[in-house]
């Protein structure tokens, strides 16, 4: 550990990391020098952002387009009752600054489209998917593949959640290797329609924050190549191996997807005949 590289405030704030094997001063330095983009300031985004801010990730970007609704507060612990009606990004930035005023928090108050996602993502080292919808999930997967950035994936539904890490590289899997294309609109209920157990995003989001820290520090063994499945109702964890698909439309040998595809193209009538 080279304590001289930390300010007195940093030594105190991050003391439990600095003395921790597998993090230490070197790991804490990597965290402070890193930048992470969190997609969504909701159920998953809340614990992800709060733990990464507390851990001293030097720059945290957070993207959302929504306002805080009272029905969010059952699980979106980054926001409080006083934030109802405010933009989620504005609320998130304020609360994250309160947790750790010494890091940079960047709010991106926007929907993600093919036209802005790469530009928003480009400056960041790691991307974390905390979205609740398929069009953005595919947009984020494809963008991280094109930009070759690590993607920490998580998703939740009712009492069940999933998480993994996608590391772009030679013959490593991406989200489309598992699920080549999104389900047709209307066939999968959203969280709003299906309900979600309030603690569930806390578990999955915390796992995503854990994985992001390991990706940044290079310590331990990430979920790369393993899809972790969690069932809150029966309190069970399972994992399945995931493999690169040579026929994957985005990272396969002969990719058919070479540019980003927008929400409308997925969920509405195709904009033009194929
Ligand atoms: Zn793939």
Task: Please provide a written account of the structure.
The protein has 274 residues and is an alpha/beta fold. It contains eleven helices and eight strands. Strands 3-2-1-4-5-6-7-8 form an eight-stranded mixed β-sheet, with helices on both faces. Helix 4 (45-55) packs parallel to helix 5 (88-99) and helix 4 (45-55) crosses helix 10. The radius of gyration is 18 Å and the shape is globular. The site of zinc ion has 8 residues, from helix 8.
Task: Please name the defining characteristics of this protein.
globular, 8-stranded mixed sheet, 34% helix, disordered C terminus, 8 strands, 17% strand, alpha/beta, 274 residues
Tell me the layout of helices and strands:
Blueprint: H1 8-13, H2 15-18, H3 24-32, E1 35-39, H4 45-55, E2 59-64, H5 88-99, E3 104-109, H6 117-121, E4 126-129, H7 134-147, E5 151-157, E6 160-166, H8 175-178, H9 191-194, H10 200-217, E7 226-231, E8 236-241, H11 263-267
Parallel strand pairs: 1-2, 1-4, 2-3, 4-5
Antiparallel strand pairs: 5-6, 6-7, 7-8
Helix pairs in contact: 4-5, 4-10
Bound molecules: zinc ion.
